[in-house]
Amino acid sequence: MGWLSKFLGKKEVSVSLEDYSSLAVDFHSHLIPGIDDGVKTVEESVQVVESLIQLGFKKIITTPHVVTDGYNNSNETILQGRDLVREALAKKNISISFDASAEYYVDETLLPKIKAKSLLPLFKNYVLIELSYVQPPLSVTSYIYELKTHGYNVILAHPERYPFYYRKDVSAYEEIRDLGVFFQMNLGSLCGVYGKGAQQAAEMLVDAEMIDFVATDIHNMKLIPAFTKALELPYVCKIVEHENLLNKQLL
Ligand SMILES: [Fe+2]
Q1: pLDDT in tens, 188-244
Q2: What does 9-64 look like in DSSP terms, one character per residue?
Q3: Among candidates 70, 79, 3, 22, which has minimal Cα distance to 238?
Q4: How far is the CA of 217 from the centre of ligand 1 (A)?
Q5: How many Å apart are CA 214 and CA 158, to the nearest integer?
Q6: For the chain, the helix, strand and coil percentages under 3-state DSSP, each to the nearest 5
């Protein structure tokens, strides 16, 4: 915890963090080499994992993109890649729980996988989904419905990064949350690495207490300095230590 505290609103929060050990689990990243737009080599993967350990994370569940027209990964390619990274970590005596799931892009090609119940969950029956940044899927409600009726709990990756949800208030977010969707915010959004719009939306969602999970969505070493600096950001302190945050459930 930080060395000094003050009152922000009603709740006492630290004004700086020593690390991200309060989050414990980072369950959104792209650390399997060569299968999406994340790390390119297993050495790079190991380097990022070492940095995440230094930042205080105790467990990593990496989530390669699954996009039919882009990164058409299967459970097999993902799990083989996970094992490759595990071997490399073991060779360097790096001790951390390293597992793999996926970040599923929502479009019609996802439906057969939902119906076959073949998605690779993060834990229990929780799956991570992402939307187009350009426009919402024609019927996001029906995809959520399909996922839920097939026994999945849905976590929406970085809701703060979708411009079509930007309003002066959180009404657009309330609509999707009312469908029973959990929200996972990217740490980098509060650091401004995705631009002002994402930062403002992230801050609004933190203030509205609508964030269930926080993760890095790290693709390579570039964001590590921003994450280190962010330990002193008031909004980062506020969300990382928030009592409602569910990250630790994935331990
Ligand atoms: Fe991602």
Answers
A1: 999 999 999 999 999 999 999 999 999 999 999 999 999 999 999 999 999 999 999
A2: TTEEEESS-S-STTT-EE--B--STTSSSS-SSHHHHHHHHHHHHHTT--EEEE--
A3: 22
A4: 5
A5: 9
A6: 40, 20, 45
Q: Give the residue extent of every domain in the chain.
A: 19-250
**Residue 185 backbone phi and psi in degrees, to 5:** -90, 145
Q: Tell whether the torsion through CA atoms of 106, 110, 114 and 119 is positive or negative.
A: negative
CA–CA separation, 210 and 125 (whole Å) = 21
Ligand 1 centroid from CA 179, angstroms? 22
3-15 pLDDT, tens per residue? 444 444 555 667 8
HSE toward the beta carbon, residue 152, CA cutoff 13 A: 27
The pLDDT value recorded for residue 68 is 87
CA of 30 to the centre of ligand 1 (A): 7
Quote the ligand 1 centre to 102 CA distance (angstroms). 9
Q: What's the longest Cα–Cα distance across the chain?
A: 52
Domain covering 19-250 in this structure, CATH number: 3.20.20.140
Tell me, in angstroms, the distance from the centre of ligand 1 to residue 92's CA: 26
In this structure, how many other beta carbons lie within 10 angstroms of the beta carbon of residue 42? 19
* Tens-place pLDDT, residues 74-110: 999 999 999 999 999 999 999 999 999 999 999 889 9
pTM of the predicted model as reported, rounded to 2 decimal places: 0.93
Q: Does pLDDT of 151 surpass 50? A: yes
